[in-house]
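On clarity, I found the account of how folds are encoded harder to follow than it need be. Since the whole study asks how a given chain folds, the encoding of that fold should be made plain. For illustration, here is how one protein appears when written out as sequence plus C-alpha cells:
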Amino acid sequence: MNKQDEDEYGLSPTKQVNVIPAPEVAYQPPKPESNEHAIGLIGAGGISEFHLRSYRKCGFPVKAIASRSMADAQKRRDEFFPDADVYDDYRALLERQDITVIDATPHPADRLPIIRDAIAAGKHVLSQKPFVLDLAEGKQLVELAKKQDVCLAVNQNGRWAPHFSYFRNAIDAGLIGDVTTIDFSLQWDQTWIAGTPAFENIHHLILFDFGIHWFDIANCMMGNQRAESVFAETRRFDRQVFQPPAIASAIIRYPQAQIRMSFHGHTQLGEEDVTTVVGTEGTLRSRGPGLNDQSEMQIFLKAGQCSVPLTGCWFESGFDGAMGELLCAIEEKREPSHSAANNLQSLELCFAAIQSADTGQPVEVGTVQTVSH
C-alpha cells in the first residue's frame, strides 16, 4: 500500500490526532433540593438491599418497610434504617399519611395489586423492573396515576449507570448529531445463577430479565425515533452450567438507524462490555471488563477526540438516580424521565424480541402485548 492509499484510508502513521477539551455533560444522578418526601419500601427481598443502601447513602428518608415475612422486614430495618416501622401487610403502610413515596420491589405478578393500591392511596410509586408483563395492564396503571395526579416511575436503574447516563445526556445535548447505529457487545459470566430456581426457570433470561436494561437504554438513546421491527435469536450450548440459553442477539430496525445487541452470558474468560454509538456528527464509545466497571468514555468529533474519565458505578449510581429522579420530578411537579409511560416503549422492544426469538421471524414493534415470565 502506497502513501496515497494510506492517506485515503486514514492509515497514515503521520496523521495527527487533535485532542480537544472534554465536553461538559452532566451525567451524575440527580438530587432533590429537600428530603421532605418519606419513603415506604414494600418487599424486603434480595434486591431491596441495594435500594436501601442507596437511600441511606443519599439521605432519602425511609420511614417504613413492609414484607410478607416480618423477619425479612425487620432484618432490612436493622441493617439500614433502625428507626423505620415494619409491617407484614403492605396495606397498613399505605395508610400512613406521612409516607408519600412507595418503592415496590416484589416480582411483577405480586407487584401489580400493590402498585394499584398505592396509586389509589395517592402515593407516588417507583416500580421495580420489569414494570408489567402485559402492556394493557401497564397502560391502565399509567392512566390511574394520571387520574390520581401522582408520579409512576420504573426502576430502570441502568439509565444512571455512569456510561449509559453519559450517552443519554450527550445525545440529548446534540453532541454527536442524529444517532445512526448503536452497538452493544457484552461477554460476561452469569454462571453464578446455576441451580437457582428463580433464574433457571426464566427461559429468556438473557433477552428479558437481563436484556430489559439494554432495550430500555436503547429506547432512551433513540429519543423520539420509534422502532419499526426487531429480529432476535437465542442459542444454548451443551456445556452450559445453567438451563436458559446463554447466547442472544437482537437487531432493532429504525427508519434511519439500526441497533445491534450481542450477549454472551457464559463467558468465563475474557469478559468485556463495549458500547458504541455512531451519530451524524461524531461517535461515543465506552469499554470495560464489565457492566459495573466502565471507567472511561471515548469521544470522537470533527474538531478532535478525547477520553473522559467516569466516576461512579452502575450498582451505586443506578439506584441513586432511579429514586433521585423520581423525588426531583415530584418536587418540580413534572413527569419523571423514567416514567411508566416511557418505559412501556422499552417493553415493546423487549416483548417483540422475545417473540422473534421464539418464532425465528422479525416482529413489528408494538404488536406483542404480553410476555410470560
